[in-house]
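quick one: coenzyme A bound model?
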Amino acid sequence: MEIKIEEISGTNLSEYGKIPISFSTNIILQVIPRVKGMSRIEFKETILKEPIKVDHDASPNLSPFNWKDNFDLSNWSFWLAKQGEKAVGGITLAFSTPGVNMLEGREDLGVIWDLRVNPEFRGQGIGKKLFVTALERARELGCSFVKVETQNTNPMACRFYSEMGGELGVINRFAYKDNPQETMLLWYFSLREGKFWIP
Ligand SMILES: CC(C)(COP(=O)(O)OP(=O)(O)OC[C@H]1O[C@@H](n2cnc3c(N)ncnc32)[C@H](O)[C@@H]1OP(=O)(O)O)[C@@H](O)C(=O)NCCC(=O)NCCS
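yep, here:
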């Protein structure tokens, strides 16, 4: 059945929040500094003995149900991917919101705050449809760049962002004080003329 992308309001994220964001993986991208000091960094696909399960919604601050209490959503945009009446994916674009560190106080930067596809519907092009929709909006808003955060423990998302034309702008091995084994990866998508590929 056809997938339709529908813009929704940030005041009602109940359907959105029910779409699972969790994933399991037995592969991580091990981040290896090669030289002391001014280090070269390499990524090595490493197979874990036991798969890990990651669920960002388990952290109350990250769950869409709580965004309205934590952030001013007036300049944010939200979309659902729907198959008939069923919400199978969602994406959120954050823009121009004082106090949101990820936006760096810049007016030419949009942030993909969240992207999720129901596990049963992954690998069917839905993430790509949502992503292109959000980047088109960012371009309309006058953004030169869109940025998104992921981790070395999410190789599927890394492949997805790389496939979407992203460039790895920041590798921060020391970003997460509660999760020191994880590395923060910030992907950047240039929206400047001729740069971003829209299918
Ligand atoms: C990341 C995610 C949103 C991708 O959505 P999706 O609908 O599965 O992705 P698509 O089918 O649109 O994939 C587009 C391209 O990305 C790449 N890709 C996506 N998933 C991949 C995977 N598991 N392995 C390798 N490449 C992958 C492929 O190149 C694919 O194109 P192709 O199928 O023509 O080869 C989805 O896997 C998801 O919801 N993951 C859990 C939540 C998450 O990690 N969100 C991002 C947080 S930063």
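The chain has a mean pLDDT of 94.
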